[in-house]
Amino acid sequence: MNQEEIREEHEYIGFFTATILKWQRLLKPHKYKQIILDSLKYLVEQKKVKVYAFVIMPNHIHLLWKINEPYLLEDVQRDFLKFTGQAMYRDLLKNHKDILALFRVDLKDRKYQFWKRNSLITFLYYRKTIEQKLDYIHNNPVQGIWESAESVDKYPYSSYNFYEFDDTTIYPFLTHYMEEFE
């Protein structure tokens, strides 16, 4: 790639969704949510990504993130999903073998799979679209079948309080999306 080429993943915030295989509610326990959080924190500390927003639901996650140069989206995404999958595998193997059996796939390259293949990434070109996705992410826990909290500010596994209350203490790895417009 020459210097004139611009990759969308370096230029625009991406709306990323990853779903647990068969929509199993594997991410319901705190310890698996913590694996996701620790991995996001690591990626930010390694300067591979900027994370602008997130929500961790029982069977899927949504992120607003941007891949930093020289890293590539497919590599960062693969490593993130592989690391989190392996960490959950190790815990399930040790503590919950009955649940582990739900994720047996017996493919050529793996016996178990936790994330569905072909996670969704959509690049967001406009501030209004970013704000729509931000609202969607933050309202996800209180909508539809989820009702995981009585209000968005009570759901601890999202970036809502970072934005609404300027709380930078809980998830210090977050970057405000408005930084993209300064």
TrEMBL record:
Highest rank taxon of the organism: Bacteria
InterPro entries: RAYT_transposase, Transposase_17, Transposase_17_sf
Any one GO biological process: DNA transposition
Ranges where the Transposase IS200-like domain occurs: 12-140
GO molecular function, one term: sequence-specific DNA binding
Name of this protein: Transposase
